[in-house]
DNA sequence: CTGAAAGCGCTTACAG
DNA sequence: CTGAAAGCGCTTACAG
């Protein structure tokens, strides 16, 4: 393995100068820089991250924590974040909680992050007080994605979940539905992020605004998965007097609902309409009406919000290219409400720097799974 | 930040002893170990990975390279691998090629891996000769997943793609189909892994065995995605005289095909049968007949094959627990053919240690998307 | 079983 | 703009 002093010797300079030249620091003459780069290339030199990190006091690594990488939203976010991080020269340390009860603590409270990363991104990660304490002790910059994950002092990139749910429910109301069920996240689930609470609130607000009573028998809790949606729907049908429409808290639940309804011999949307939230890759194939949320954009923006303050801390070696400008102009900064819904602005969480927090818009996508209720 | 000498001072021993005790080395007396552990806990000490890696000459990190983390197979593999690695105390450095033309080179041939990891896992990563040269220079242990990715000297965990395709095609033949189309991977795609070549071979072998001619107009190339399946099917229909059945090289393509057929007003399976390979999470919801392949198991086995030789090199600190035994006994080692198909054994690639290579079985899962052709 | 000391390969004030 | 030297926080022979 060639080391920095091999390069220094060949270029006829000190290792300090090699270090500076390779990182693109401005205090190196053009001639020297050229010689150093040529020597490094000739020797196929690559810096040792371990040594560089120890000496420099930075890890060049960002931890990304997701509940389940296999779910559409999280894999889409991670793909966008990975590209952003690598473009900026950062490594991505992936933590997948994977539904294991003890994993969240292991990641957040033990050596999972300690001295390992320069910054943290939590995606829809459920947090207890003890987790917040542990994160505080780490004293690292961070960002969260999803309204369900709030860390004091960290910006949050998200959609307006209450508004999205209100829009979904209103779509069903506008079609003439009155018996509208909601299937949502299970609060007993160790990995339940609180997003489902916001979405239920939107559902309830829309019903109330329409002058409809809240029927607890139409509100079923289950997990944010295909199976969860199937089980919730089966439970709903078991209760008798089925709803004419189901609003599922995410597309995967909605797909599970579609499956259960079909198995029960019910037609969609003639017998039961179904709407979700996400605009999953396969929503189109299934003809699922949904509230689209921009997953990749949330990842991209979160990465930028996280990296911007770190910029310049890391060497320019991996490419000093700025993150591509993909903002799209659709982001609303500062916490004002946006999106398909024109309801009241979301309440800002306590203490986070709203200036860097972002709420991205959602939009109703009507497909074949929703229609008016039967006339009878 | 507390350092190792803080712990040493409190425990009244040298830093060398702290280092040994914390890593669970056997050459420490029980009493000393206890004092050290107590001191470390009291000070909330966590080892500095950078320092440890520099001094120890190991990174404790494994690179995992996937084409697209958003695709079912890859996210499922990564989830299994992530759990395995973290259980063994390794960090997972994720590289997502993401369809970008230059990414593969950037990851494999530049500082993406150099001095950064102890081992490499390539999942369905297309490799050119120059990539192989670069990997050889890295001189690291590695493992690949998928028949499309073969690195000399590295074991490979995979299914028998030829057999899987043969079984899929034979299922359609057994139902009475004679005009069977195949939609498969695009060889022009920079990220095309050669898996689609194996699957096409199985398709052709099954047709030939049934005494049917190969009709090039029934063989359409496209990408391994939902959109790819849709486009390929549209192309197929455009050619006129549509097939009575479509064998798609993966479930995502099959789902795209389902979408295109529906849009064309064709019924499934009455007008056209559809079969894929994977048993994607949503295959059940869509009623898709498929050849199931064990994605998580392939990830788990690949992680084990990779970590086994490394065992003991890393400290026991992160938990000396062995990887859970989830082999299931279904794995066949040594290259003999298994699975739903009883055809000839797959040809072993040149030079890889077949002893550690594994071929996992696949199985036909019949759902609603396949049936006999119409009588007319 | 334990310790003193060298060394891992860089980066960073500091001085010039 | 450049270099000499200290130091980042560990691990590892080596010696006992």
UniProtKB/TrEMBL annotation, chains A, B:
UniProt keyword terms in alphabetical order: DNA-binding, Transcription, Transcription regulation
GO molecular function annotation: DNA-binding transcription factor activity; transcription cis-regulatory region binding
Entry keyword DNA-binding: yes
Extent of Low complexity compositional bias: 325-342
Domain HTH lacI-type: 2-56
Gene3D superfamilies per record: 3.40.50.2300, lambda repressor-like DNA-binding domains
Alphabetized SUPFAM superfamilies for the sequence: lambda repressor-like DNA-binding domains, Periplasmic binding protein-like I
Region named Disordered: 325-356
Listed InterPro entries: HTH_LacI, LacI/GalR-like_sensor, Lambda_DNA-bd_dom_sf, Peripla_BP_I
Top-level taxon of origin: Bacteria
UniProt-recorded name of the protein: Transcriptional regulator, LacI family
């Amino acid at each position: 393995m060639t080391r920095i002093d091999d390069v220094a010797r060949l270029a006829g300079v000190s290792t300090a100068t090699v270090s500076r030249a390779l990182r693109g620091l401005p205090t190196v003459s053009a001639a020297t820089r050229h010689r150093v780069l040529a020597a490094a290339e000739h020797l196929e030199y690559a810096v040792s991250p371990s040594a560089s990190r120890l000496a420099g006091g930075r890890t060049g690594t960002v931890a990304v924590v997701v509940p389940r990488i296999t779910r559409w939203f999280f894999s889409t976010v991670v793909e966008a974040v990975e590209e952003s991080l690598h473009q900026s020269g950062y490594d991505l340390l992936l933590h997948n909680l994977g539904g294991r009860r003890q994993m969240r603590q292991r990641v957040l409270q033990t050596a999972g992050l300690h001295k390992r990363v320069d910054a943290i991104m939590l995606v829809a990660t459920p947090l207890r007080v003890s987790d917040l304490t542990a994160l505080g002790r780490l004293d690292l910059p961070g960002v969260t994605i999803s309204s369900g994950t709030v860390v004091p002092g960290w910006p949050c990139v998200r959609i307006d979940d209450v508004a999205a749910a209100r829009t979904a429910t209103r779509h069903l109301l506008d079609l003439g539905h009155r018996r509208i069920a909601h299937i949502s996240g299970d609060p007993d689930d160790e990995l339940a992020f609180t997003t489902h609470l916001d979405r239920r609130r939107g559902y309830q607000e829309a019903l109330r605004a329409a002058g409809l009573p809240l029927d607890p028998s139409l509100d079923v809790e289950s997990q944010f998965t295909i199976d969860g949606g199937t089980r919730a729907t089966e439970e709903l049908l078991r209760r008798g007097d089925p709803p004419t429409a189901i609003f599922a808290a995410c597309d995967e639940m909605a797909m599970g609902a579609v499956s259960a309804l079909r198995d029960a011999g019910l037609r969609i949307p003639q017998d039961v309409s179904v709407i979700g939230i996400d605009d999953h890759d396969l929503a189109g194939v299934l003809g699922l009406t949904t509230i689209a949320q921009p997953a990749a954009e949330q990842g991209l923006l979160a990465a930028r919000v996280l990296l911007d303050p770190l910029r310049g801390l890391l060497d320019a070696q991996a490419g000093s290219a700025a993150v591509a400008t993909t903002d799209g102009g659709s982001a609303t900064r500062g916490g004002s409400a946006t999106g398909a819904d024109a309801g009241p602005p979301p309440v800002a969480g306590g203490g986070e720097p709203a200036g860097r927090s972002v709420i991205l818009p959602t939009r109703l996508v009507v497909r074949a799974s929703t229609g008016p209720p039967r006339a009878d």
